[in-house]
From TrEMBL:
Domain of life, source organism: Bacteria
One Gene Ontology molecular-function label: oxidoreductase activity
Keywords noted in UniProt: Oxidoreductase
Coiled coil: none
UniProt protein name: 3alpha(Or 20beta)-hydroxysteroid dehydrogenase
InterPro entries recorded: NAD(P)-bd_dom_sf, Sc_DH/Rdtase_CS, SDR_fam
Keyword Oxidoreductase: yes
Protein family: Belongs to the short-chain dehydrogenases/reductases (SDR) family.
Gene3D superfamilies named in the record: NAD(P)-binding Rossmann-like Domain
Amino acid sequence: MRRFDDQTVLVTGGAGGQGASHVRAFHAEGANVVIGGIDAQRGAALADELGTRARFVRLDVADESSWSAAVLAAESAFGALNVLVNNAGVQNPPATIESTDQATWSRILDINLTGAFLGIKIAAPALRRAAGGAIVNIASTMALGGTAHYAPYVASKWALRGLTRTAALELGRDHIRVNAIHPGVIATPFIREPAAGATAAIADFYSPEPFAIPRLGEPTDVTRLLLFLTSSDASFITGSEHVIDGGLLLGPALQAETA
C-alpha cells in the first residue's frame, strides 16, 4: 500500500518549481491531488498529465473566498481533504527597507503570510471532518536570520514560524499536525530567474561551494521531507521546524584538503 492511498492533498503554488515536484510525488504515492494556483494553463496541463486523481483549482491564496472555493472543490471531487501544503510564495525585488514601497511590502506579506493563515483557517474544518490530517508550511532559511535587501520576504517567513506553532497548538487535539519546512537555495525558477522588478536572480550571486554539501538543493530534496512530515511515519511530530539547506546556515565548511 502506498503512503497516501485514499487521501487528498491540496498544494498551493502547485504548478511551480517546488509545487509540481510535490504534486507529482504525492500522486505517485497514491494521493488525489488538488493543484492550487493562479496559472490556469500550467495547472491544468499538470492535472491532465497526471490523470483522473488530479484536479486544478484556481486559487488566489490572498483571497478568503478563493480558499473556500478550493477546499469545497477538493471535498466535492474526492470526498475529503487530508493534507494541506502551503507552498505558494513570492520574492520581493532586492531593495533596502528605506527603498521598499508599501505596495511591495503588502503584496509579499499577503501571499506568503496571509495566504498561509487563510489556508489554515479554511482548511482546518475540512481536515477535522476527515478525522485529522497534516498541514505543512513551506517557509525558508531566511526565517532563521536576517538578509539585507529582502525585508518583506524575511518578515513574512519569520511570521510564518509563529503561525505554524500557534496552529499546532490549536489543532493538535483535533489530530491535525502542523509543521514547517525551511528550504535553503533550491534550483527552481524562483532562484534562477529574477523576481518581478529585479535585474538579477539569486543564483547569479550565490555559490554553494563553501558549504558542507556544495550544490544547490533540488525540489525533490524538499519533496522527500514533505512526504515524511505529512505521512503517518511522522505522527508524533507537530509544531516543528525542519531546515533543509545543505549546511548553508552552518557557515563555510572545512575544506577536504585541510580536514
